[in-house]
Design goal:
- The complex is a heterodimer of chains A (601) and B (195).
- Chain A is mainly α and 601 residues long.
- Helices cover 73% and strands 5% of the residues of chain A.
- Chain A contains 25 helices and six strands.
- Chain B is built from seven helices and six strands, in the order βαβααβαβαββαα.
- In chain B, strands 1, 2, 3, 4, 5 and 6 form a six-stranded parallel β-sheet that branches.
- Classes of the chains: A mainly alpha (601), B alpha/beta (195).
- The interface between A and B is medium-sized, with 15 and 23 residues.
């Protein structure tokens, strides 16, 4: 038995390790990679794993962990602040999508119970897929990301009453009505226990365990906590995921929030991956093959309707132009809660097992399809953008002596606004469409998209640029852009923002010589303020000390450069550099002390 | 309380190493009706605020330049101050020649120190010229702006001055500042010399 467990683990991990990097390499994202891996190893692929059901059940814990972590991010105060988007937008989304699907189903002549349950279940989206898609595209900080996040959160909450209502529509069991009250009481009791226990039991326990300094026990406790709460919630008939979410919210303002997050993050990632694999495996191609036309028609109809409603809704969410469709597509798939809702409905005999499995296949297929559709959408809009841009760039020939700024976040903005104020004509590349809109309104030439793509650089007029400012947040993207520009536009001078010293060296490796460490100057300035405003030292003398410090520091950074690749030498050199810095600081002080003589009048 | 009508422009790049100028500045700061601008302290990055400096100048009746002499001139920040604050057309009228700008009629007083003794400032001495020769640029600047040039207060050999001599010098500086605040007892140098 253990043997088969390990063997299964081997298959899962192997499939993930092969499929996910391949999929990312092809630009398809991790989610699709997992899904494909699942299909390949599942009963309709190479049949490496037989019991897809078990895997799905186990992997649902990944979703549970995901919701716990989402809860951790949401302090009650933040949740309260987000109440409008969560309940307003989320409520509107669930109600409108469910109503539309319900109506459509009725028109097709489907019974109202089935139509209602299908509509409700399918109105939910996949938190795991949608969040991953938003994050992959760096959209979380944008209004689209916020709206998506709020809606997903509402869906997670809304799933609970759905799961509770569904059995009421079914053939009544022999349960007497009084049980409902007991069930409600149980839920209330568990929730109260959770709130009280969370504050007065879990936190002291966390503190106690943290003090013992046994890291793995802290991790074990974190897992134990989530599993125990989830099981508890399940035992009173609520969903595990919602329980975990509430537990997360309860611990969100505790001092161990970050420790819990970092400890659970890898588990969440792996289990979510397993969940996607299991979804891939659970696509029942037998149902599909029995009535391919019906299933495909349902998938297409469902996706069209849901995307349409989301698209219409998104116009009210104040997101950037051109983002509405992307947003609608991201939330268009069926979600993991749909499996639970349909499972509950089948168990309550609202509809037959066959109908349930058709619905499950529809949801699973929609999960497979949406990442593909999204990818196609990204490709298409990028091409349209690129084409439009190159026309535009050609049309505006005289805009020759411009400076390109890649990345217009906190850093790039300051550089850009300063250059703009100094009358330099700018071309800005950024992947946040909101920024792009605002900047265009102010007459900047702005290109939306991934700056590391060569065609975007070409469209932006890299060939006629005087300089390129690389101000991208992400280190890998920054280096990728530098690589691309070095090979395609070797004469373009690069001015780069370095996130840290290693990044500084990596930029030097690529022949970039005009580099600024992003925090260094600000830190020195603050240090000067401490010395003058805080400690009353002479401002001019402090400036001289700061200048000296900066010079030594840069010398140091450059001196260590030849050794940084060799890790061992690097460490010892870094240590030596630190010793040198100490010597230099001491020498600084001696130098200043020496100047206390009376050589001035 | 009236607005301070004496403006002391104090420029010393290393006050911690100054035995005389720092005490002169402290003495000036202690007086009412004196606004002291410690230029190196206010503008360590030389990013002088010309508007603010001009506003202070406009209020003043007497402008005091308080600084040591190095390399035959004023400390670099004071030159920068002149460059950005004394804008032609404001400090003096640049069109019609003879100063009609904002500084016209104000008094200008140079209070300075030298490292060498007085004997170094003569033909054949270490510095080859009388001290007045080195004061010429600032003096002519004041004149261009239509300011009254008061006889400078100079302490030669401040580098090696005795404690008592410094005390006496500081006392004299403070006395004359306080006196000027009451009434302009220092006659303009031009008037005294009848030039």
């Amino acid at each position: 038995m253990e043997h088969s467990l390990l063997l299964n683990a081997c298959v899962y991990l192997g499939a993930a390790v092969i499929a996910v990097p391949l999929s990312k390499r092809l630009g398809m994202g991790a989610v699709l990679g997992y899904l494909v891996a699942g299909i390949l190893i599942g009963p309709f692929g190479f049949r490496l794993i037989a019991e897809a059901e078990d895997a799905l059940h186990f992997a649902e814990f990944g979703v549970v962990l995901l919701l716990f972590l989402i809860g951790l991010e949401l302090e009650p105060s933040r949740l309260w602040a987000l109440r409008r988007p969560i309940f307003g937008w989320g409520g509107a989304q669930v109600a409108l999508v469910a109503a539309t699907l319900f109506g459509a189903a009725l028109l097709l002549g489907i019974g109202w119970k089935l139509a209602l349950i299908a509509g409700l279940g399918l109105s939910l989206s996949s938190t795991a897929i949608a969040l991953a898609s938003l994050e992959e595209r760096n959209l979380m900080p944008t209004p689209a990301g916020q709206a998506g996040f709020s809606i997903l959160l509402f869906q997670d909450i809304a799933a609970i009453p759905m799961i509770a209502i569904v059995p009421l529509l079914g053939i009544p069991d022999d349960d007497p009505g009084g049980n409902a009250w007991i069930a409600v009481l149980k839920v209330v009791g568990v929730l109260a226990g959770l709130i009280v226990g969370g504050r007065f039991l879990v936190r002291p326990l966390l503190r106690f365990i943290a003090k013992t300094d046994a890291r793995e026990i802290f991790t074990a406790f974190a897992l134990l906590l989530v599993i125990a709460i989830s099981l508890l919630m399940q035992s009173v008939g609520m969903s595990m995921a919602l329980g975990a979410f509430m537990a997360g919210v309860l611990l969100a303002d505790s001092e161990y929030r970050h420790a819990l997050e970092t400890d659970l993050e890898p588990f969440k990632g792996l289990l979510l991956g397993l969940f996607f694999i299991a979804v891939g495996m659970s696509v029942d191609f037998a149902v599909f093959l029995a009535r391919p036309a019906v299933v495909l028609g349902l998938v297409a109809g469902f996706l069209l309707l849901k995307t349409g409603v989301l698209y219409a809704l998104s116009r009210g969410f104040g997101m950037a132009r051109g983002q509405h469709l992307q947003f609608a597509l991201m939330l268009s798939q069926g979600g993991e809660f749909a499996f639970v809702v349909f499972g509950a409905a089948a168990a309550a005999r609202v509809f037959s097992a066959e109908v349930a499995s058709i619905l499950v296949v529809v949801v699973a297929l929609s999960m497979v399809v949406t990442p593909l559709v999204l990818m196609a959408h990204d490709r298409l809009s990028a091409r349209r953008q690129g084409a439009r841009k190159s026309d535009e760039a050609d049309a505006i020939e005289p805009n020759e002596d411009h400076v390109i700024i890649a990345g217009f976040g906190r850093f790039g903005q300051i550089v850009g606004r300063f250059l703009h104020a100094s009358g330099v004509s700018l071309t800005v590349l950024d992947h946040d469409p909101d920024q792009v809109d605002v900047l265009r309104r102010f007459g900047f030439k702005v290109f939306y998209g991934d700056a590391t793509r060569a065609d975007l650089m070409r469209a932006a007029g890299a060939a006629r640029a005087r300089a390129l400012v690389v101000a991208i947040d992400d280190i890998e993207d920054s280096l990728a852009l530098v690589d691309a520009v070095r090979s395609e536009y070797p004469d373009l001078t690069i001015f780069a923002r370095a996130r840290n010293v290693t990044h500084y060296y990596q930029l030097m490796d690529r022949g970039v010589s005009l580099i600024e460490r992003e925090t260094f100057e600000a830190a020195i300035k603050l240090g000067r303020s401490v010395l003058t405003a805080g400690l009353g030292q002479s401002a001019y003398r402090t400036r001289q000390a700061a200048d000296k410090f900066r010079k030594y520091n840069l010398q140091n950074v450059l001196a260590v450069y030849p050794y940084y690749k060799d890790r061992d030498t690097y460490v010892s050199m870094a240590k030596r550099a630190r010793d040198e810095l100490e010597t230099m600081i001491a020498r600084d002080r001696r130098a200043v002390d020496d100047e206390s003589g009376h050589d001035w009048d | 309380m009236t607005a301070p009508d004496i403006l002391v422009l104090y420029a010393h790049p290393a006050p911690q190493r100054s035995p005389v100028n720092r005490r002169l500045a402290e003495a000036a700061r202690a007086l009412p009706n004196v606004a002291l601008q410690d230029l190196y302290e206010l503008y360590p990055d030389f990013d002088i605020d010309p508007e603010r400096e001009r506003a202070l100048l406009a209020q003043a009746r007497l402008v005091v330049f308080l600084h040591p002499i190095r390399w035959y001139g004023m400390p670099s920040i004071l030159k920068e101050w002149m460059d950005v604050v004394l804008r032609p057309g404001w400090a003096y009228s640049n069109g019609s020649g003879d100063g009609e700008g904002a500084l016209r009629g104000k008094a200008c007083w140079l209070v300075t120190t030298t490292g060498s003794g007085p004997e170094a400032y003569q033909a054949g001495g270490m510095h080859g010229h009388p001290f007045d020769a080195f004061v010429l640029p600032i003096r002519q600047s004041a004149r261009l702006c239509g300011m009254d040039w008061l006889a400078p207060l100079i302490m030669h050999g401040a580098f090696a001055a005795s404690e008592a001599a410094v005390d006496a010098h500081v006392h004299e500086f403070a006395r004359r500042l306080a006196g000027y605040a009451a009434s302009p007892i220092l006659p303009p140098a031009e008037a005294r010399h009848g030039a």
